[in-house]
Every structure is written in C-alpha cells, then in structure tokens.
Specification:
By secondary structure, the protein is mainly alpha-helical. The protein has one domain: lambda repressor-like DNA-binding domains (434 Repressor (Amino-terminal Domain), Orthogonal Bundle). It has a two-stranded antiparallel ribbon. Helix 2 packs across helix 3. It contains five helices and two strands, in the order E-H-H-H-H-H-E. It is globular. The longest helix has 10 residues.
Length: 81
Amino acid sequence: MLFPMSRNPEEPVYNRIEEARTALGLTRQELADRVGVHYQTIGYLEREEYSPSLVLALRIAKALNQEVTELFSLTPLKKGR
C-alpha cells in the first residue's frame, strides 16, 4: 500500500549548534566525527537546511555538553543568548 507524500513542508528546527561548537573550539569535522556523520551534515544543520533525527539531536547535544532544549527549538532562537 502506498501512502501519499505530505504536501506540507516539515516544520523547521532552529538550533545553536554553531555557537556551541565554536565555544568549545571544535571544527565541523571534529563535531561530525564525535556524532558519526559527515562534516557537511553539520553544515546543513547549522544553516538550518536540514532537521536532525531525535537520535542525532541527542548525540550532538551530548558531544557539545548541552541539553537538547538548549540547542534546538521549534521557534527561532536568539543567537548569543
């Protein structure tokens, strides 16, 4: 059985990944290595061009020593808190 694709775009997920990553002095490659993804995936996430899976969001939060709710939101985040 085939299910129709949704015509509604996915709700965006906003984040502070770049801010947290640079505060720790990590490159995109270093963060990618820690969470098991390609460095370009980190770039897509930081530019909010891609929404992470729950597992990836949890891995990123752990790698950056942050709570998921400090890094990700369904509403725009103010940068630099």
